[in-house]
From TrEMBL:
<feature type="domain" description="RNA polymerase sigma factor 70 region 4 type 2">
    <location>
        <begin position="139"/>
        <end position="175"/>
    </location>
</feature>
<keyword id="KW-0804">Transcription</keyword>
<dbReference type="InterPro" id="IPR013324">
    <property type="entry name" value="RNA_pol_sigma_r3/r4-like"/>
</dbReference>
<dbReference type="InterPro" id="IPR036388">
    <property type="entry name" value="WH-like_DNA-bd_sf"/>
</dbReference>
<protein>
    <submittedName>
        <fullName>RNA polymerase sigma factor</fullName>
    </submittedName>
</protein>
<dbReference type="InterPro" id="IPR007627">
    <property type="entry name" value="RNA_pol_sigma70_r2"/>
</dbReference>
<dbReference type="Pfam" id="PF08281">
    <property type="entry name" value="Sigma70_r4_2"/>
</dbReference>
<keyword id="KW-0731">Sigma factor</keyword>
<comment type="similarity">
    <text>Belongs to the sigma-70 factor family. ECF subfamily.</text>
</comment>
<dbReference type="InterPro" id="IPR014284">
    <property type="entry name" value="RNA_pol_sigma-70_dom"/>
</dbReference>
<dbReference type="GO" id="GO:0003677">
    <property type="term" value="F:DNA binding"/>
</dbReference>
<dbReference type="Pfam" id="PF04542">
    <property type="entry name" value="Sigma70_r2"/>
</dbReference>
<feature type="domain" description="RNA polymerase sigma-70 region 2">
    <location>
        <begin position="29"/>
        <end position="94"/>
    </location>
</feature>
<keyword id="KW-0238">DNA-binding</keyword>
<dbReference type="InterPro" id="IPR013325">
    <property type="entry name" value="RNA_pol_sigma_r2"/>
</dbReference>
<dbReference type="InterPro" id="IPR039425">
    <property type="entry name" value="RNA_pol_sigma-70-like"/>
</dbReference>
<dbReference type="GO" id="GO:0006352">
    <property type="term" value="P:DNA-templated transcription initiation"/>
</dbReference>
Amino acid sequence: MEQLGPDELDELALRAAGGDRDALEDLLAAIQPRVRRICGRMLLHPQDAEEATQDALLLVATKIGSFAGRSRFTTWLHAVASNSARSTYRTLKRRSAEHAVDDLPVHADPRTTSVIAGSRLDLLEALEVLAASNPDLVEPLVLRDVQELDYNEIARLLDTPLGTIKSRIHHARQAIRPLLRVHD
């Protein structure tokens, strides 16, 4: 399928949200590469990103009725895909802990983990810590600093005043900064 622009995706998404099954199938085909890229920004291995992609596409298919067109469909999609990637990470982490030898936690081996991959692991771990204490700060931070949406898009997507979004992102950055520091 040819790449659709934002206006075309919005129109297709609104038709799908209204119950048009053909529009939903076309929409899912059109967004799959974009969802894979979003998930790939957060997850280390292509197989993990693919798992998150499939979960995100399923969520889009089942939750498209909640898309009301208040923001761009791509903005809504970024939130769905980012949350799917974080959910996949939590599932993988839980599975890893369940299969750890002698109940010892499994950690990334610094000799086999690239700096970029390691920093993504650190960020996902920091987001998990932040979610436990301040869950309302996580989504705005991910949408801004990982998915690179602008503040206005995030405010529209989360239906939250712009000033509140900026404040939440600022507080989230302050909260995770110590968790991301390199320790010798």
